[in-house]
């Protein structure tokens, strides 16, 4: 069984490889971005599973999933993420992904999920897919749309418009519009002030 793990975080990638190497009859290859992953897929190897990090360079939201799945000889491509929403997971499965794996899974569960998908079974953790979204009724958010709230959360995490766009599967110009509207609604002049207000008032 041969598995390709593509993730731009060295620590997580190395940890996953270490876990998989403890299993019998599993060969693990790695890539740091989508371009490198595609080069390996197009090379001399055949993979039982290609596991892609949703937020790594080159992914462009779910487009990267399609790029990998369309390569000849690859039939099982799965998505993993530490931040993607249930909506993104559902869209990935609808597009034909073999599964969706939250990075928050315990190590043993993560390994089992990867083996399960590599054998051809579809996987998505039931508790993640059925969990109700957390309600946040903070007064500061009363006049914000759900998207504006998500963008504000990204600002408090110090993310760039490009990173927020990637996380929310939006275009960068759309995120810029949401940021501009946020400034007006919050009465601030820049992203730093918006983030500070949200943090100071304990919104997230």
From TrEMBL:
The gene is degU. This is Protease production enhancer protein. SMART domains: HTH_LUXR, REC. GO terms for molecular function: DNA binding; peptidase activity. InterPro entries: CheY-like_superfamily (IPR011006), EvgA-like (IPR051015), NreC/VraR/RcsB-like_REC (IPR058245), Sig_transdc_resp-reg_C-effctor (IPR016032), Sig_transdc_resp-reg_receiver (IPR001789), Tscrpt_reg_LuxR_C (IPR000792), WH-like_DNA-bd_sf (IPR036388). Residues 2-118 form the Response regulatory domain. Keywords: DNA-binding, Hydrolase, Phosphoprotein, Protease, Transcription, Transcription regulation. One of its GO terms (biological process) is proteolysis. Residues 137-202 form the HTH luxR-type domain.
């Amino acid at each position: 069984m041969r598995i390709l793990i593509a993730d731009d975080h060295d620590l997580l990638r190395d940890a996953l490889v270490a876990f998989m190497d403890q299993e019998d009859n599993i060969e693990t290859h790695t890539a740091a971005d989508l371009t490198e992953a595609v080069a390996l897929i197009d090379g001399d190897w055949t993979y039982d599973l290609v596991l892609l990090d949703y937020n790594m360079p080159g992914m462009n939201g779910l487009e990267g999933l399609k790029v990998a799945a369309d390569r000849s000889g690859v039939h099982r491509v799965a998505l993993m993420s530490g931040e993607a929403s249930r909506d993104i997971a559902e869209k990935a499965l609808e597009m034909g992904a073999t599964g969706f794996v939250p990075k928050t899974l315990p190590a043993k569960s993560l390994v089992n999920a990867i083996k399960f998908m590599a054998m051809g079974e579809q996987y998505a953790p039931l508790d993640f897919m059925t969990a109700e979204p957390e309600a946040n009724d903070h007064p500061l958010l009363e006049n914000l749309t759900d998207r504006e709230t998500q963008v504000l959360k990204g600002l408090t995490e110090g993310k760039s418009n490009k990173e927020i766009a990637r996380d929310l599967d939006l275009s960068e110009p759309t995120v810029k519009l949401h940021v501009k509207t946020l400034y007006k609604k919050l009465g601030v002049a820049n992203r730093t002030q918006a983030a500070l207000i949200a943090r100071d008032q304990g919104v997230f």
